[in-house]
Amino acid sequence: MTDDLAGLQAETEAALAAAGDLRALDAVRVATLGKSGRVTALLKGLGAVPAEQRKERGAAVNHLKGVLEAAIESRRVALDAAALEARLAAERLDVSLPPRPFAPTGPESGALHPITRTVEELTAIFGAMGFGVAEGPDIEGDWFNFGALNIPDHHPARQDHDTFYVPAGADGRRPVLRTHTSPVQIRTMLGQEPPIRVIVPGRTWRADHDATHSPMFHQVEGLVIDRGITLAHLKGCLIDFLRAFFDIRDLPVRFRASYFPFTEPSMEVDIGWNRKTGELGKGGDWLEILGSGMVHPRVLANCGIDPREWQGFAFGMGIERITMLKHGIPDLRPFYDSDIRWLRHYGAPVLSPATLAEGV
Ligand code: DAH
User: Fold this and answer.
1) What is the CATH number of domain 114-346?
2) Which atom of ligand 1 is nearest to the CA of 204?
3) Could you say which residues bind Mg(2+) here (predicted)?
4) Is there a binding annotation on residue 264?
């Protein structure tokens, strides 16, 4: 190889070694092999070479071209690999790191509303006991909300619920904004064969408004229908639930005879607490938490289920109420104010779903 070719090869190889990225590499390629590149110029210049030297010179220039093409390609491969390495290093995810701590005051952080969180927790706890989740409409037929639940037209329990009515339909009956989640018991029993195990979290409505009542609130209903179901199942299920939800292993639970039209016998369920301090689990006072009972045979019959073959229990409770108790939230009204400061204070981390593994 003549000196000029050897010099060009050395210069180009030095330039390639100095090219730190793909752009710099491309500049070297263009300067060497591009339209006005130095090797291209040599090839074009072959015509001017005396005929007796042309063959040798042509072979040498072409050889140099091949060598430089290979050198450029190998530098490209090296730079590509380095770029990928750099990206992998920059975007590295350490999956062994603990999750980022929830920053309740950070402007960028969102939070789950406490109601949403409680529904997640209820679903986790009852899910572990084999319950599914059912839903129903907010606007209910009179028969679903009252009649099928053994609350006939002139039953005094109708007045217990300060009902929002909707203008009457074709049958002359006024639909209602459901006053409880119990109508979904009826829909579930009509829609599926026993055995049944469902909870029904959802919105409910009553014309009531003060520090502890809102016209829109949430309940969760529970329904179990199977053969041989007794009060013992009801008690075991609710004691387990209450202890898991409030995370107090020895939470005192009391069952007190009561009355609901759709259960017989019926019971209110109380938990132990301290009335003065609000502390749950000790203190000798009782706080009513929910209503429950054995599903009334007439309700089963209304849904086409033979009460001699199937029995069951049901319960219903206010989601706001158990949420306020669990988290020490003193006032109901801010639940619906959409005040971001309140949400950040009482909200739950979005990225840590309620699971039983860590306790809900
Ligand atoms: N529906 C009742 C209410 O809103 C709560 C309730 C009590 C539901 C007893 C039940 C039950 O399923 O068995 O006050």
Assistant:
1) 3.30.930.10
2) 4
3) 264
4) yes
